[in-house]
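User: Can you write out an input/output pair for a complex, sequences first and structure second?

Assistant: Here is one pair. Inputs:
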Amino acid sequence: MIVSIMIQETPFFYDVIDEVGNNLYKLQLEFGQWLSEIEGNHPFKKYTEIIESNGEVSFAGYINIYGPDAFIGWVNVEKYGEKVAVKIKNDTHLTPAVTIHF
Amino acid sequence: MYMIAQKNIKVLKQLKEIFTQLEDLYESEQNLSVTTQHTIKITEFCSKLTAVLHSCRLEDLRVIYAICSIGYHERGERHYYENNTREIIELELSESEEELLKKHSKYIEFLNEEELSDYFLSRVRLTQDLNEGMKILKLI
């Protein structure tokens, strides 16, 4: 099943097993929940500080930094333990069965 | 994995050099000073990048990916709103080099050589990540 993950207006296409495609939005929510429970340095997070013009630290903490490939990596490795989703390289004229937005 | 990282120090330095050149070229492209010569140079460096990546085995590409990820995600970033500048924050790290490499290669476990090469070929900026990753792992 072909699915797309949108980053603003740009689609990224993946060929996934039906179970993944049919549950893609649920997996997205589960991924977000899983990520929110992770503490410290992680391949999908970055420690960030924002310093305002008056020197005040308006933010200091971890932000989520991930793209569609990271999410798919999580689906394959963490959820299924096998390659159930593959990135599609030549993606012109593809019509996805399912689309989610990041 | 750390032994593979050490074995690839020369490749890592080559990649750093290529990405440094590419970043300069892409930056001058954004400054609208594009010439045919400029475009030829970008193509040349992309070809060099492809050649270096093709010389790597799957395990080499996994480790190189992990080093870049370490360089990005194991460092913090401080943004100064006033002048829109950023600086790197060196965070306290408790994991060993091997543990870091395993952590940062976990989610690419099923990617093949082509998929990993495509990742590097799609990147515009990687010099800082490579540099910081190599520093953290004491490869420079």
